Amino acid sequence: MNLRKAQISIILVTLLVSGCFPPPEFPDVPNIRFSSLQYIDYETARDSMVLKFEFEDGDGDIGLTADEIRTPYHPFNIVIDSRDSIVRYSDPDVVPPLYLVDPLGNVTPFSETDNRPPFNCSSYQVGNFTDIGTDTFYIQKNPYHNNLHIQFLRKKNGAYTKIDFASEFGNASCDVVDFNGRIPIFDRENIGRSLSGTISYAMLSAGFPIILRSDTFKVKFYIYDRDLNKSNEVESPDLTLSKITLSRD
Q1: CA 221, 13, 199 angle in degrees (round to 5)?
Q2: Do residues 107 and 164 both lie within one domain?
Q3: Quick check: 81 and 88 in contact, CB under 8 A?
Q4: For residue 56, which of 14, 40, 173, 182 sits 20 to 30 Å off, Cα-Cα?
Q5: Is the residue at 237 inside a domain?
């Protein structure tokens, strides 16, 4: 089963106060509230899970464009060892300690030991470096690359565990590692002003009925603004697919 890459559909309704009325006073750190989660079974390879939530932000700096991939919005940091060698998945000669290097060349300590995990879609990236060639490299994902972060949590015996969509299928495909994504800039002219509204975020995949089945689950999510301020973390109530499935009639 190939889980198709999550695709994003954002519908934004902004509520701006101007003219004779003073704007509402919101903190510059975003605040969000869960509204709903709905599942649409299209009987195709691209079913849709739609998360809807409300937001408020005092300076309106919500959103990233698709081409903003330079620091601090770059996708990942590479890992090097004490010899300044880029760490590869299959390298038997890694010499700790390990360090992280961002695209600007900034180096920060990462691990005193060789802490490479078994292969998984989150910790490794297939890439090409001029002096090495194509290989599978050890990385650390940059949390600021995406400004919307979502986890699905499965409930079992009263406890919740994070669902790793890639590992559910044995990391056979890294097309879908998670459903994190980017809220686009939708009101550039009003950045710096109080902003509130509703965001609908659509996640497309063939894997939802296979992985979630009849399980009880919930979603947990948060956002970052352009200044890297993290919002509050929000959780949905307990849900099941049958409970949130929309009729196509």
Answers
A1: 15
A2: no
A3: no
A4: 40
A5: yes
